[in-house]
Amino acid sequence: METEKEHWDIEIKPRGSNFSLNIKEVWQYRDLLQMYVRRDVVTIYKQTVLGPLWFIIQPLFTTIMYMFVFGNIAQIPTDGLPQPLFYLSGILCAGYFSDCMGKASGTFIGNAGVFSKVYFPRLVVPISSVISNLVRLIIQLGLFLAVYFYFVYNGTDIKPNIYILFFPLLVLMLAGLGLGFGILISSVTTKYRDMAILFGFVTGLWMYATPIIYPLSVMKEKYEEYMWIIQLNPLTSIVEALRYGIMGAGTVDWFWLSYSFVVTIIVIILGSWVFNKVERSFIDVV
C-alpha cells in the first residue's frame, strides 16, 4: 500500500546561497511584515503629546537651525534656491537614509529575544524599518511641498524638469543603501559591540561629506582638492540629482549617479551575504 504523501504549508530548508535576500520567503511572511511596519509607525511616538506631528517638527526645526547657522552666520550659498527648500531637501534625503540604516543596524541585538524563540525570515525586521521610514518620509514630503508651493506662489524662480521622474528610483537607492549598510553593521556588531560606537561616529562624519548644508558648486569652486572625497560618497549624486530634478538647481552627473547605483547593488549583496552567514549562529554570540 502506497504511503500517502504529506503536504506542508511551510517548509524550513537550509539556505542555498548566502547572497540571496530570499524575497519569496519574506513575501510569505508579509502579514508579519505588515505588523512590524504598523508597530514602528504607531508606537514610535505613542504616549507623546504631539504624536505624529514630530515627523514634521523635527525636520522643520532642523531647517530653521541650518538657516540661522549656515545660511545667515556662515553665509554658505544655496545655489540660488530659497534656504528652506535647499536645507529641507537635503535633510529629508539624509534623514531617510540614516533612519533606515540606524534601525536596520540593530536587527540582531534588538531582536535577539524574539529570534531565539520563533522562526521567521530575519530580513523581515530590517525591511519593515525601511518601509515604515518610507511612511515617515511621505509625511515629511507633505511639509516640503507646502514650503515648495509657497515659494512658487510668491514668484520664486524654481524650475522642475524631466529628472523629477527619477525621484522614485533615487528614493529606492537611498533605501537600498540604508538597508545594505544597516544589515552589514548589524552583522558585525553582534560579536564586536564597540563597533556600534565606531559606526555611529562615522555616520555623523558621513553627513558632513554629503551636500546637505552646502551645494556641490561651492566645493568645486573653493575646495576642489577635496572633491574626490565628496564624490566618492554615494549619497552625494543622489541628493544633487533630487535637488536638480525638483528645483532645477544643482548638478546631475551620470557617471557619479551610475557609481552610486553600482555601490547600492554591491552594498546590498555584501550586506545580505554577511547577514545570512551571521544569522545561522548569532544567537550563540549575542
3D structure, described in words:
With 286 residues, this protein is mainly α. 66% of the residues lie in helices and 0% in strands. Helix 4 packs antiparallel against helix 7, helix 4 packs parallel to helix 8 and helix 4 crosses helix 12. The termini are far apart. 37% of the residues are buried.
Radius of gyration: 21 Å
Strand content: under 5%
Class by SSE composition? mainly alpha
Biggest sheet overview: none
**How helical, in percent, are the residues?**
55-70%
Overall, the morphology is: globular
Indicate the mean pLDDT: 84
Number of helices: 13
The CA-CA distance between the termini, in Å, is: 50 Å
Along the chain, the helix and strand elements come as: HHHHHHHHHHHHH
Strand tally? 0
Q: Could you name the ranges where pLDDT drops below 50 across 5 or more consecutive residues?
A: none
Task: Outline the fold blueprint.
Elements: H1 23-28, H2 30-43, H3 54-73, H4 83-104, H5 107-110, H6 112-115, H7 124-153, H8 167-189, H9 194-208, H10 216-222, H11 227-232, H12 234-247, H13 254-278
